[in-house]
Structure formats: C-alpha cells, structure tokens
# Entry
Amino acid sequence: MKTKIRILSLLLIAFMMLSLVSCNKEQEPKAEPKAQVGVLKGPTGVGAVKLYEKNSLVDSIGKYDIFMYETANANALVTNVLNGSVDIAAVPINTAGILYNKTNGGVSIIAANALGVLSMVGYDEMTDIKQLKGVTIHTVNKGATPEYILRYVLEKNGLDPQKDVEILFYSTPADAVAAATAYHNQGKVSVAMIPEPALTVNLTKSPELKLIFDMTDEWDKVSTTKLIQGVVVVRNEFLRDHPDVVATFLDDYSESVGFVNGNHSEAAKLMVEYGIVNNEAVAEKSIPNCNVVCITGTRMKESVFSMLEVLYGSNPASIGGALPSSNICYVASNEAK
# Structure
C-alpha cells in the first residue's frame, strides 16, 4: 500500500512540474522576427550608414538586418519587396507608387528620406533651362524618379522631351558623364544629369566640368510641391504584425540621418567603408547636397502625396498607372494631428 502511495505521489509531483514548465513556456514572450531592410547605395545609403555600421556588429540591433543594393540593381530590391523577402525598403518615390499598385495597396510609405539630389553638369555655360533645346542629356535610371523630374522640368519650361532634346540613359553616373565628355570632345553641346554623391565625385575628378543647373532649384521655379526623391516603404502585413519593430527602425533611422548631417567627417569614413564612394574628402563634401532626411507623420504625408500627384499628372505610368489612395502614407497615431 505504501508503495502505491509513493508511486502516486511521484506521479503527482511529476505532473505538477510538467504543468509549471508548460505555464512558464506560455508566459515566455514571443520573439519578434528580424525585419529585412534594403537600401540603395546613393542618398538612401548615405542616410543609413550609421545603421549599417551598427548592423555589422553581432547582435547590436537585434530587430532588423540591413542590406545595401547597388543602384544599378534596384530591380532586385523591388522584386524582394514583392516576394516578401524584404520587409522595409528605401526606394525612389515613384517606385513606392508602383509597389503600391502592384500589391493592391500592400505597402505603405512610412518616411521621406531624400529630397532633391540631382544636378546637371557639362562644359558649356548655360543660365536658362530653355537653352537645353537641341542638346543631348545623358542621365541615369530610365523609368525612375530622375527621368520624371527631368521631363517635368523640361515641359514646364516649354520644352518637349520627345522633340526638343535627346535623352540617353546609362547604368551609372560615371557612364553618363563619360558620354557627355565624349560629345564635348566631338564639338557637340551636351550635359549629364546625375545625383549626389556621384556629382561631387565627378566634379572633383574633372576640373573642366561645370555645375550648370541644380535641379532642385529648377523644380522650385515651376512647382509648389516639395521635391522628394526617396521614401521608405514597409509591407503592410509586416507593419500590422510587428508595429514595434517598424517604430524602432524609424527611430534608429532618424538617429542615423541626424548623425550623418551633424558629423560629416565621421559619416564620410563610413561612406567609404561601405563602398558608396571611395574618397573621404569627396564624400564629406557631398553630404550637404545629398539632402538626406527622415520626415514622418502628417508632414510627410502631405509632401509625399503631393509629389505623387505631380508624378501622376506628368505621366501616370511613372507610378504604376494609378494614383494611390492617400492611405499609402502611414501616420502613427502619436504623429497624427
């Protein structure tokens, strides 16, 4: 009898221990997944260099992994957002519209991260955009924001992009400048429209090359909408399931942008380390013109949606054929008016 009682007691103790273990497991917080973040080298990469540095240290961030994509490989980043392998991405603003349309509203813009970064360079003096009539313009990113900014500014100045100028596209800013130089050497007038930091790199390398037009200035002359070139998007499924991860990323991204704008020398070292440019002095000089920002909330929504309206009015195909609903811009409850 005593033996049976002892066995029953042991079984009861074992059951209680299993119950406690089970309860403890249920009380353990569910681990948040790491967000997969993609940024393009260039202005969006510049704003994220401090995050990229932190992310390269083992378990220093914990909530997300960041990967830089070559600008010429922007389609790979877009594809990875569409297939769900990238949760948060820094992309041109027109690409955000395309992603919204391709996913039937499956992404949201959570920040504006780059203002105007384009300029025209060449070897001939010009003072008015209208002087581009009959000129060949060498540039980058066919089907992306630079093309539509160029076409918009030309049209607002009375120039037909199809008839009055020739626009040729290249894979890199260096290729565009090289082509403009070749035209110049043949006695032809031409310009290259390129972004920072490539602008400063090429002006430093070629003393004869001149800065002709700052495209942000030219945009401001013909539009009341703030020129926004880059934004940060998130897949809505990820935002819905992990809002805290997204909020942490935005806080850290804003801190990184503040570091870049306030510490040009240190930021320049990171730009070289991560392959955005290969010269610290040039990198440091380019930072002010990269116009990296982290604008969120209602202020972001107003500016971003106005820019999408301009792009749609200029060419609906530039943002995927349809103007997104204003809910493409996500405003956290604590940032709403």
Summary: The two ends are 75 Å apart (CA to CA). The chain has 14 helices and eleven strands.
